[in-house]
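At this stage, I needed to go through a protein sequence along with its fold in token form, as given directly below:
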Amino acid sequence: MSMSAFFRNLRTSYQAEIDDLSFDSEGRNVLRQRLLEKRGQVAFLRQMMEVSPEMVAVVFHDGFHFELPSVLDQVLTLDSDEFPDWASLADAVQLTPWAQELADGFLQEPQGDWFMTVAAALEYMHQRPSSHHSEAGEHEHDGAEPHGQTHRRDIDHGHDFDRDDEQHQERNHDESSAQWLEDQGFDRKE
């Protein structure tokens, strides 16, 4: 999968923003607390959404569920002036209730649709680092599992059940995503 220069540039900044919020000077994980504080500053942050979207998008961290990953893969190839309307991504991206409440405020802004697409794409890249690290030519996978995922392995047979499940889910998502992309006017990949 290729990625537009726009998202390649923002990806590192978004990860740095998450990293900066994650730990205090004593090494304690304070991400949840700091995100709550940032979410309390949304009125101020909205003013920065066009200039520094990666700094604002962190308020949506862990607020998205990606139902059709290949749709987001397609969005990542687009330049910042080519994004589909946010409403057209409704089947591909679901928001948690608290994130939907935040999004409603952002969507009232003139560039709200654009920003929500950027925020979703940044969080998508953050949640699926292994598939995009190698594409972006960044750090090698260090053996750690992606955020929030565990890895099951049948030790006796060396069978990777998670990978089988992921491949099955990806095939199902790919078909749904291909149909969605075609409905949006994109050419169907074969």
